[in-house]
Every structure is written in structure tokens, then in C-alpha cells.
């Protein structure tokens, strides 16, 4: 067995210094809506448009996503921290009391999110204690607003620097 040079707590605390946004992954499987809060979201490819998300083994939404073959990435705004907390609670009915809105492919979406990215499951890779799901993005919609951040285990704000996007970015 390969010796563990970095233990899980150290890994979590160290990667916690990498600030991220916060998303909720939603899907519907056998007529049941599922959703979970997620920050292990990465843009992988522009052409074709691919992204990836990492599901902890045991996350109920992982099974629902792989069963249905479709999911939506909902990028949360600063005002949606309560939504992030709701969808992070284990073993709860995440949608209870929340008005459901549906995207084009019968996948529920989080209303008023900064963006919805409709995805088809492209491939699934098992990696350590997580299941990595690559999504091929089939449609997007966006709205203006400030993003919700996550840093060192806490929700945070993300403040833009400067008035214009960096020239090399677009
Ligand atoms: C900010 C934040 C980010 C999270 N990111 C992930 C993640 O990337 N992958 C993951 O498996 N769980 C992540 N979680 C934990 C899940 O949201 C949580 O385990 C959820 O209850 C799983 O729901 P489910 O089992 O009903 O699918 C995150 C939680 C929070 C608060």
C-alpha cells in the first residue's frame, strides 16, 4: 500500500485556501428531484464545452445524476447562501417548501441563480473517495449579480478588482 503522505484533514485545510464560487447541482431521477451544494466545479474544455464536478462517495445526488444522465449546474449569487446551506444538509428533503422551476430537459433549477448550465453526462471517472462526473454543456443562461464565495470552510464575498475584465481574457 502507498504510504499516505498527506492526511485528509491537511488536504482539506490546504485546499480550503483555494477560494471558489458555490454551485448547486440539480437533477431528476425517476420523477424525484435531487440537488446538492458543490464547490468542486471546474471548467475543463471550451470546444467542446466540458466541465467536471466531484461527488463524495455516498452523496445521494451522485447516483441520481449518473442514473438520469443529465444535470444542471446552478451558480449561486451572494444572496443565496441559505440555498447553499439547505442543499448541503445530509438526508433532508432539499426541495421541501421551495417552489420548483424546470429547465428544458425536466431538470429542476434553482430560481435566480447567476447561471444555469444544462449538462449531459459525458463520462464518469472514479478517483479516490470521489466520483468525478464530466458534463457536456448543452445550454446556458446567465443573469447579473455578485457571486457567493467559499474560502477556508466559510462562505465569503468575491470582490472584483478594477473596472474592466483583463484584456487577455476575452
Ligand atoms: C460550500 C460547500 C461545498 C461543497 N462541495 C461539495 C463537493 O464538491 N462535493 C461533494 O461531494 N460534497 C460537497 N459538499 C457537501 C454536500 O453538499 C453534502 O454532503 C450534501 O448533503 C450531499 O447531498 P446528497 O447526499 O443529498 O446528495 C459541499 C458543501 C458545501 C457547504
UniProtKB/TrEMBL annotation:
It is an enzyme of class 1 (oxidoreductase). Keywords: Oxidoreductase. It comes from the Bacteria. SMART domains: Flavin_Reduct. Residues 15-157 form the Flavin reductase like domain. GO terms for molecular function: oxidoreductase activity. Its EC number is 1.5.1.-. SUPFAM superfamilies: FMN-binding split barrel. This is Flavin reductase family protein.
Amino acid at each position: 500500500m502507498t504510504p499516505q503522505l498527506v492526511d485528509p484533514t491537511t488536504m482539506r485545510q490546504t485546499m480550503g485556501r483555494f477560494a471558489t464560487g458555490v454551485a448547486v447541482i440539480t437533477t431528476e431521477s425517476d420523477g424525484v428531484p435531487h440537488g446538492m451544494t458543490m464547490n468542486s466545479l471546474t471548467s475543463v474544455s471550451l470546444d467542446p464545452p466540458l466541465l467536471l464536478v466531484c461527488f463524495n462517495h455516498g452523496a445521494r445526488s451522485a447516483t441520481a445524476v449518473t442514473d438520469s444522465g443529465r444535470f444542471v449546474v446552478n451558480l449561486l449569487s451572494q444572496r443565496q447562501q441559505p440555498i447553499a446551506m439547505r442543499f448541503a444538509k445530509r438526508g433532508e428533503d432539499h426541495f421541501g417548501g421551495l417552489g420548483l422551476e424546470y429547465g428544458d430537459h425536466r431538470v429542476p433549477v434553482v430560481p435566480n441563480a447567476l447561471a444555469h448550465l444544462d449538462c449531459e453526462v459525458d463520462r464518469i471517472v472514479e478517483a479516490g473517495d470521489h466520483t468525478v462526473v464530466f458534463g457536456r454543456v448543452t445550454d446556458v443562461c446567465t443573469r447579473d449579480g455578485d457571486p457567493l464565495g467559499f474560502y477556508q470552510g466559510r462562505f465569503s464575498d468575491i470582490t472584483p478588482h478594477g473596472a474592466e475584465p483583463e484584456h487577455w481574457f476575452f
